[in-house]
Design a protein that fits this description.
With about 130 residues, the protein is of the alpha+beta class. The protein has a single domain, classed as OB fold (Dihydrolipoamide Acetyltransferase, E2P) (Beta Barrel), CATH 2.40.50.100. It has 4 helices and 9 strands, in the order βββαβββββααβα. It has helices spanning about 30-35, 85, 90-95, 120-125, and strands spanning about 10, 15-20, 25-30, 40-45, 50, 55-65, 65-70, 75-80, 105. It has a 6-stranded antiparallel β-sheet. A 3-stranded antiparallel β-sheet has the order 4-6-7.
Length: about 130
């Protein structure tokens, strides 16, 4: 498995979340997930202003091999989506922890982050 950013928290379903402070979280998928999917060709993201719930489907990412649900690691209001992914979904493959982020959430309860996996926990859950 590639290097996992230690400042992120993870779900066993291969999503990551970055605490941006001020109750804001950025969500994306891991390098492991993008590698397993192969070339990403489309992403469906939640609408700005909608509410996402921790552990529930928030979107879809499609590749040449498969389609996979995106689950939100936290509950809150979607305040931004990565519109650049509409025209360049391959950014997810090139930069899963950087420019390939999916959406940002104003968290209802930032303490939800405490229940997520750290890098070592994710690595173990992913069987690496």
């Amino acid at each position: 498995m590639s290097e996992l950013p230690s400042e992120l928290r993870y779900l066993e379903t291969h999503e990551w979340v970055r605490n941006e402070g001020e109750g804001i979280a950025t969500i994306g998928i891991t390098d492991h997930a993008q590698d397993a999917l192969g070339d990403v060709v489309y992403v469906e993201l939640p609408e700005v202003g909608s509410t996402v719930n921790a552990g529930e489907e928030a979107g879809v990412v499609e590749s040449v091999k498969a389609a996979s649900d995106i689950f939100s690691p936290v509950t809150g209001e979607v305040i931004a989506i990565n519109e650049a992914l509409e025209d360049a979904p391959e950014t997810i493959n090139d930069s899963p922890y950087g420019d390939g982020w999916f959406f940002k959430v104003k968290m209802a309860d930032p303490a939800e982050l405490d229940g997520l996996l750290d890098a070592d926990g994710y690595r173990e859950a992913a069987g690496e």
